[in-house]
Design a protein that fits this description.
It comes from Streptomyces spinoverrucosus. The protein is an alpha/beta fold. It is built from nine helices and 13 strands.
Length: 318
């Protein structure tokens, strides 16, 4: 099957990436060292790759698929959550490692900023042996979670999936996922890994880290000389769309009152890809991403609500 370029819808969305369990602890003010800090704690399904898939489905993408790796401890729970979100998941059960767990410490003050403590568990053990070219049957777009690049098996899987996608003409996007892990990986290794991809979706911090430039617009422009389309997520400052070394659009944010910023970038990416596959131009797709990001920060957790009355914008773009 021939793939789709930006603005040319065709086929399903396949996401390859992490599926983890989020433990979200919302507290107010600084943590009290050596004693108790009152918090509201919830255990929720998460993972950047899984979140993107769920938001894409929520935003109207009719066929969303996911490849991930979990432990036997939580596979049934995650399968049910993904199915309820409309995602067709293939979850490989790791025989040794447990499902990844992320503790999300969320300051419930005005900014709702979050800090992650991450035990990646089985999610970073996804490897080329879990891949099959048949996973691309009927697929028009492949999206990779940047967390794959932070382990040796994951990097090998990225290379394998890229080779398969190129052979079928399926375009590929990637979200760098974590400025902290990205700094450990190194800029040169990251840029070599994404060579040949069509779309990069970094945060402002990630874009600046990858280029060494302090200005997000300059960073997006520079990255778009390496990857054809760069969409930089800037939170309350909206998004930048850059192509061929030039920022082509500055997309405003949608006003929101944040409760928890966990997964806001994943929401942006999922809605952006859903709109792109529906035929939107990148600038319009970025506006959809901003709308989804605003909705995400007003709720707790990284996934969209589930249920017939909770659908996303589901824009009909032709």
């Amino acid at each position: 099957m021939s793939g789709a370029g930006p603005g040319s819808p065709s086929g399903a969305l396949l996401v390859v990436g992490d599926v983890v369990t989020d433990v979200v602890a919302r507290h107010r003010g600084p943590l009290a060292g050596g004693t108790d800090t009152a918090a509201v704690i919830r255990t929720l399904p998460g993972g950047a790759g899984a979140n993107v898939a769920c938001w894409a489905s929520h935003w109207g993408c009719a066929d969303v698929r996911l490849l991930g790796r979990v432990g036997s401890d939580a596979v049934a729970w995650h399968e049910r959550a993904l199915a309820a979100a409309g995602v067709r998941a293939r979850l490989v059960v790791d025989p040794q490692a447990p499902t990844g767990t992320v503790i999300c410490l969320v300051d419930s003050g005005a900014a709702a900023e979050r800090t992650f403590l991450t035990d990646s568990g089985a999610s970073l053990r996804l490897d080329p042996g879990d891949w099959s070219d048949v996973l691309l049957d009927g697929v028009g777009w492949l999206h990779l979670s940047g967390y794959l690049l932070f382990s040796e098996p994951g990097r090998a899987l990225v290379a394998t999936t890229l080779t398969s996608a190129r052979a079928r003409g399926v375009p590929v996007s990637l979200d760098p996922a974590s400025a902290g892990f990205l700094a450990e990986l190194g800029v040169d290794r990251f840029l070599a890994s994404v060579d040949g991809m069509e779309v990069l979706l970094p945060s402002r911090d990630e874009a600046c880290l990858l280029t060494g430039l302090p200005d997000a617009a300059d960073a997006a422009a520079k990255l778009s000389r390496h990857v054809p389309l760069v969409v930089t997520k800037q939170g309350a400052d909206g998004a930048l769309v850059a192509r061929s070394g030039t920022v082509r659009a500055r997309v405003p944010a949608v006003p929101a009152t944040p409760r928890d910023t966990t997964g806001a970038g994943d929401a942006f990416t999922g809605a952006f890809l859903a709109a792109l596959l529906a035929g939107a131009e990148p600038e319009d797709a970025a506006a959809e991403g901003c709308a989804a990001g605003a909705r995400a920060v007003e709720q707790v957790g990284g996934r969209p609500p589930v249920g017939p009355a909770s659908g996303g914008r589901r824009t009909a773009i032709r």
